[in-house]
Design brief:
This protein is an alpha/beta fold. It has helices spanning 14-32, 45-51, 57-65, 89-98, 122-125, 165-180, 196-209, 222-231, 243-257, 295-307, 312-327, 345-354; strands spanning 2-10, 35-40, 68-73, 103-109, 130-136, 146-151, 154-159, 185-190, 216-221, 238-241, 264-268, 274-278, 330-331, 341-342. The longest helix is centred in the N-terminal third of the chain and has 19 residues, at 14-32. It binds 3-isopropylmalic acid (IPM) and magnesium ion.
């Protein structure tokens, strides 16, 4: 099969980790007889330098014409003092909105090989931690009406949280579909004891659950969920939640794994179109030094093969190759421990590609 991919390397370590992902994807292409075409595009800080804005129209248009998008990372010190609408991060929100990427999947997995990196005690980790955070990505308070105004006590600012039944139905549907292929448990996280938007959210999630009698549903308030994640992370399978709660809880869940350089993500829209990126940032301090861990980006490729192209065997092959390299003791600096073999970005990419 032929696949057209939009590739946004971005800033900092973005280009070097994306190169490794492409290396692995090309190997998959040769083995399974697929052809991947890459169209490299600008977004983030490099786009600000080249065009004056973080998300050029051409980038959005080219993404829309592609089958899927691969993104490295955006941002860096150099652009940190720009006003909000010109910052590299705007490119991410812009892409999500323009491409209709309403579902963000963020797996938090503790790898057996890297259990030492987890900051929690072994008795708390238990047998395994394998959580899929499903975050709503184009609604809620990040996209609601906001502004400043004169209040009775002077200037004030506001942001609004609003969710429609439709928005909740489609994200809940994704969460239940994913749970069906996992351990069949969905935890809905909201703040329904206080927020009206959460009460609607909970009602709709409960309604959607009726179509999935084999999937167990429980509800947690977000404050309790934050606590449970640290106390008993093994209890979770799929967590479904709003844009802001998902932003916060997915960072918390990723820290539990202790290896943020390992975690991929998928942002999905209608008809299986998706954007795939590591959850970590652009790490400008180590950019261009062959030190970055490319595994999160390589695992994002696996998610792309699975969720957009429905190529389960190919996705599994990438994940197995990553596990193999870890078992053999190869480590980039961020996941290095005693007795293991330290390798750079490029060699890590080679080793994984060789094991496809
Ligand atoms: C994330 C990031 C973004 C978000 C920022 C950079 C806009 O924190 O992807 O989680 O809040 O969604
Ligand atoms: Mg975040």
């Amino acid at each position: 099969m032929n696949f057209k991919l939009a590739v946004i390397p971005g800033d900092g370590i973005g280009p070097e980790i994306v190169d490794q992902a492409i290396k692995v994807l090309d190997k998959i292409g040769r083995k399974y007889d697929h052809k991947f075409e890459y169209n490299k595009l600008l977004a983030g800080g490099c786009a600000i330098d080249a065009t004056g804005g973080p998300l050029p129209k051409e980038t959005v248009e080219a993404c829309k014409k592609s089958d899927a998008v691969i993104l490295g990372a955006v941002g860096g010190l150099k652009w940190d003092t720009l006003p909000g609408h010109l910052r590299p991060e705007r490119a991410l929100l812009g892409l999500r909105g323009e491409l209709g990427l309403f579902a963000n999947l963020r797996p938090a997995v503790i790898y057996d090989e890297l259990k030492d990196a987890c900051p929690l005690k072994p008795e708390i980790i238990g047998d395994s931690v394998d959580i899929m955070v499903v975050r709503e990505l184009t609604g809620g308070i990040y996209f609601g009406e906001r502004g400043r105004r004169e209040g009775s006590m002077g200037q004030e600012a506001y942001d609004t949280e609003c969710y429609s039944v439709h928005e909740v139905e489609r994200i809940a549907g994704i969460a239940f579909e994913i749970a069906k292929k996992r351990k069949s448990r969905v935890t809905n996280v909201d703040k329904a004891n206080v927020l009206e938007s959460s009460r609607l959210w909970r009602e709709v999630v409960t309604n959607v659950s009726k179509d999935y009698p084999d999937v167990a549903l429980e509800h947690l308030y977000v404050d309790n969920a934050a606590m449970q994640l640290i106390m008993r992370p093994g209890q979770f399978d799929v967590i479904v939640t709003s844009n802001m709660f998902g932003d916060i809880l997915s960072d918390e869940a990723s820290m539990i794994t202790g290896s943020i350089g390992m975690l991929p993500s998928a942002s999905l829209g209608e008809k299986s179109f998706g954007l795939y990126e590591p959850i970590h940032g652009s790490a400008p301090d180590i950019a261009g030094q062959d030190k970055a861990n490319p595994i999160a980006t390589i695992l994002s490729i696996a998610m792309m093969l699975r969720y957009t192209f429905n190529l389960e065997a190919e996705a599994k092959n990438v994940e197995d190759a990553v596990n193999k390299v870890l078992k053999e003791g190869f480590r980039t600096g961020d996941i290095m421990s005693e007795g293991k073999t330290l390798v750079g970005t490029n060699l890590m990419g080679d080793l994984i590609a060789e094991r496809i």
